[in-house]
């Protein structure tokens, strides 16, 4: 008897059941449909349905718009909220039109309602927030992305700026994200113009967080871009708290290091943790001391010392010294050769400075230039053997390194 033919149709499941459960608890679908304009009854797929598929794709796969239809065909339809044959309707044009509908939404109201509901459902602690920003690098000219208003709403300027991907030739936007210390949950984000200075975004971010939390006494943690007089004074004036990093360019950095040369700091151990690089390596010991020299605005300064960073800095320092020493010895051989192109003392000094600068060893290596006069004798053409001419030349050997001082670890 002939066996009935069958086809094996495999579908992707992955983390979709977990993600769907989270989205369900967040009431994401209901919230999206409530804020979006009413769909066109003639449309094959409502904008909210297309955006829900796009959201799942951004979280799990992040394929381009034109590839989402193919991705959806490989997924169990009901996990995407689709009918069995609805995936074919997910064209990039339809997804683009759905994003246009989302642009017209009052996104501030939408996100505020979404975040507040998330905080209540998952009971997120709001005592501490961490903020950071980065650049989103874009390819292309984007000539029309000049900040003009579109359908009554402001848009962002895509422009050149300080690119954190080290691509100053490309345009960018600035992405600002704030997460809770409890679970690293995103609670606030913003996209700013590409040429926005990071330090100018903190007052607005902190003010928005205050409205979200309902009080000012939470702890706001950010990198050195927060450490400006205007930012710190504003948060302090609003009875807020902050932790930030003092830039090395600030005079307080040099004042404390100079103070350490003449005083003994009372370092206190506050924590130990496993070696972050080697499992069998020594534990990292973290110590702190409060600076006797306050911030220029009167705020407390606390210095941290990491045993792991000290070891890492020591290795980097020795690598820089070895690199510079090797380069100096190489140039010394050139200077001793018969075809040396360095004839002036200034040229030798310039080359030595360049070597130390490129190796990053200027702080630890010193050099001295010794001018040695050599007498060379050669016969002059057309003279008897008993006659000779005396010629001299000056040689400027490469400065020999005199001292390699490891110096103090940077705090």
UniProtKB/TrEMBL annotation:
<protein>
    <recommendedName>
        <fullName>DUF4277 domain-containing protein</fullName>
    </recommendedName>
</protein>
<feature type="region of interest" description="Disordered">
    <location>
        <begin position="389"/>
        <end position="411"/>
    </location>
</feature>
<dbReference type="InterPro" id="IPR047654">
    <property type="entry name" value="IS1634_transpos"/>
</dbReference>
<feature type="domain" description="DUF4277">
    <location>
        <begin position="10"/>
        <end position="114"/>
    </location>
</feature>
<dbReference type="InterPro" id="IPR025457">
    <property type="entry name" value="DUF4277"/>
</dbReference>
<dbReference type="Pfam" id="PF14104">
    <property type="entry name" value="DUF4277"/>
</dbReference>
């Amino acid at each position: 008897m002939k066996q009935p033919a069958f086809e094996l149709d495999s579908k992707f499941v992955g983390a979709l059941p977990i993600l769907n459960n989270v989205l369900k608890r967040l009431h994401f679908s209901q919230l999206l449909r409530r804020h979006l304009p009413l769909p066109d009854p003639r449309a094959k797929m409502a904008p909210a349905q297309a955006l829900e598929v796009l959201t799942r794709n951004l979280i799990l796969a992040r394929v381009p718009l034109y590839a989402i239809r193919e991705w959806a065909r490989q997924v169990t339809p009901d996990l995407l909220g689709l009918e069995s044959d609805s995936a074919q309707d997910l064209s990039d044009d339809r997804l683009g039109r759905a994003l246009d509908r989302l642009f017209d939404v009052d996104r501030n109201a939408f996100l505020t309602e979404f975040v507040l509901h998330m905080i209540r459902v998952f009971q997120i602690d709001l005592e501490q927030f961490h903020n950071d920003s980065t650049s989103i690098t874009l390819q292309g000219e984007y000539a029309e992305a000049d900040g003009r208003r579109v359908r009554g709403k402001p848009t962002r300027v895509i422009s050149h700026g300080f690119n954190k991907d080290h691509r100053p030739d490309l345009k960018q936007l600035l992405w600002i994200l704030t997460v809770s210390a409890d679970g690293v949950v995103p609670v606030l984000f913003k996209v700013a113009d590409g040429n926005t200075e990071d330090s100018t975004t903190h007052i607005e971010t902190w003010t928005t967080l205050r409205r979200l939390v309902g009080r000012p006494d939470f702890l706001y943690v950010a990198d050195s871009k927060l450490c400006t007089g205007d930012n710190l004074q504003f948060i302090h004036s609003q009875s807020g708290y902050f932790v930030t990093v003092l830039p090395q360019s600030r005079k307080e950095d040099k004042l404390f290091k100079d103070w350490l040369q003449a005083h003994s700091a009372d370092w206190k151990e506050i924590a130990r943790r496993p070696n972050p690089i080697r499992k069998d390596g020594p534990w990292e010991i973290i110590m702190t001391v409060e600076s006797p020299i306050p911030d220029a605005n009167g705020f407390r300064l606390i210095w941290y010392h990491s045993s792991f960073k000290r070891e890492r800095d020591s290795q980097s320092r020795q690598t820089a010294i070895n690199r510079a020493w090797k380069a100096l010895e190489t140039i010394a051989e050139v200077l001793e050769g018969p075809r040396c192109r360095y004839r002036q003392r200034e040229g030798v000094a310039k080359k030595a400075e360049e070597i130390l600068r490129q190796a990053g060893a200027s702080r630890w290596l010193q050099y001295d230039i010794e001018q040695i006069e050599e007498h060379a004798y050669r016969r002059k053409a057309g003279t008897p053997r008993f006659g000779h001419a005396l010629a001299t030349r000056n040689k400027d050997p490469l400065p020999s390194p005199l001292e390699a001082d490891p110096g103090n670890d940077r705090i």
